[in-house]
Amino acid sequence: MLTPDEAKTLGQAANNAVTYGLGMTVGFLFNGYLYESVGSFNLFIISSLIALSGGVIFKLDQKSNTTAIHATN
């Protein structure tokens, strides 16, 4: 438990402020810098490669978890 029971709302508000406020601001600034540096086409290529690598990692993790589950049965 990260916050006491009487401060749950404050904890959720702080989490949302950091996640959606700060995280998105930094992301937009970084993507703006990349857009100016490499152009729109290359920015979309970079974004799609990042998304593809995330999908591959997720699929590999899913396969390893399935293998581990079947090995224990």
Explain what the structure shows.
This protein is mainly alpha-helical and 73 residues long. The protein is built from 1 helix and no strands. The protein has one helix at residues 8-72. The radius of gyration is 19 Å and the shape is flat.
Tally of domains: 1
Beta-strand percentage?
A: under 5%
Uncertain stretches of 5 or more adjacent residues: none
Helix amount: over 70%
Largest sheet: none
- What is the terminal separation in angstroms? 33 Å
Strand/helix succession: H
Please compute the radius of gyration using only Cα atoms: 19 Å
Q: What is the subunit organization of this protein?
A: single chain
Quick one: overall form?
Answer: flat
Summing up helix and strand content along with how strands pair, one would put the structural category as mainly alpha
| Beta-strand segment tally | 0
Q: Overall mean pLDDT score?
A: 88
Number of helices: 1
